[in-house]
Design brief:
Layout (H helix, E strand, L loop, with lengths): L1 H12 L2 H23 L16 H9 L5 H20 L11 H36 L7 H29 L2 H12 L2 H13 L9 H6 L7 H28 L4
Helix pairs in contact: 1-5, 2-4, 2-5, 4-5, 4-6, 4-7, 5-6, 5-10, 6-7, 6-10
Pfam family, one: ABC2_membrane_4
Keywords: Membrane, Transmembrane, Transmembrane helix
């Protein structure tokens, strides 16, 4: 397990695509804030302007927009990191070792958690830079609320990366995995389920879908919202981690 993780960590630290994704994401995040400044209008709820929001409110505003660019970048890296090893055939050098398949998946789940954390840190830093330059406002707000928001979003986005990893393991195709990941990031399943709910009525299944939870604004001072976010994230993480491991263990080598 330790040796497999060290190999994946080495690939992670020396992965030029990862650094390129982070730089591009940061640039577009700051550019997006510039565009918000150009076309700023008071928000409908309470008339709060974007420029006067603190960090917590601004992050929730950004993440609530579809498509979620954070999910897009997480999708690209998750698929690339798994498929680059799979397509090279390098995994065949260790896959016959005892429990190697299980440890390989667990190792990649940990690496995806590290990338997810880097993405959120990059987003927070880019937002602070952009808001400082264009809005002259770098207010964080309530630090307790801010930390709970970041922890909740980290767990949700990590769960999404595990879901994409599972899709990559099953499909064995970079293109197929990317397409499905983008569809999920666009929240197409959530919109379909929501439309069906409006027809049936008295059902609120869509609120428990992973991407719907990510793009929904939550009050992290409300214990029910905190439990909801944590429950959705942990359930998705456990379910798709388990399924990914079980599928990899039984997978036939090409």
């Amino acid at each position: 397990m330790i040796n497999l993780f060290k190999m994946d960590l080495h690939r992670f630290k020396n992965n030029k695509i990862m650094y390129l994704l982070l730089v591009i994401f940061s640039a577009f995040e700051i550019f997006g804030i510039f565009m918000m400044k150009q076309y700023e209008q008071p928000m409908e709820q309470g008339g709060t302007s974007v420029s006067s929001m603190n960090a917590s409110d601004f992050i929730q505003l950004v993440l609530s927009q579809t498509p979620s660019w954070v999910l897009m970048y997480v999708t690209v890296f998750s698929v690339y990191f798994y498929m680059s090893e799979y397509n090279s055939g390098f995994y065949k050098n260790y896959i016959s070792m005892n429990n190697a398949r299980m440890y390989s998946v667990i190792s990649k789940i940990l690496i995806l958690g590290m990338f997810t954390l880097l993405m959120l840190v990059t987003m927070v830093i880019s937002d602070l830079i952009g808001r400082t330059i264009f809005f002259n406002n770098a207010a964080i707000g309530d630090w307790g609320y801010f930390v709970k928001l970041l922890v909740g979003q980290f767990l949700l986005h990590w769960a999404f990366s595990i879901l994409v990893l599972f899709i990559s393991i099953v499909s064995r195709s970079m293109i197929t995995s990317l397409v499905i990941g983008v569809v999920l990031a666009l929240n197409v399943p959530g919109m379909v389920v929501g439309a069906l709910e409006s027809l049936v009525g008295n059902i609120n299944l869509s609120s428990y879908l992973l991407v719907n939870t990510i793009v929904s604004t939550k009050d992290f001072n409300n214990m029910n919202d905190v439990i909801h976010v944590a429950s959705v994230a942990i359930i998705f993480m456990l379910i798709f981690s388990y399924i990914a491991v079980r599928y990899k263990v039984k997978e036939d080598l090409r």
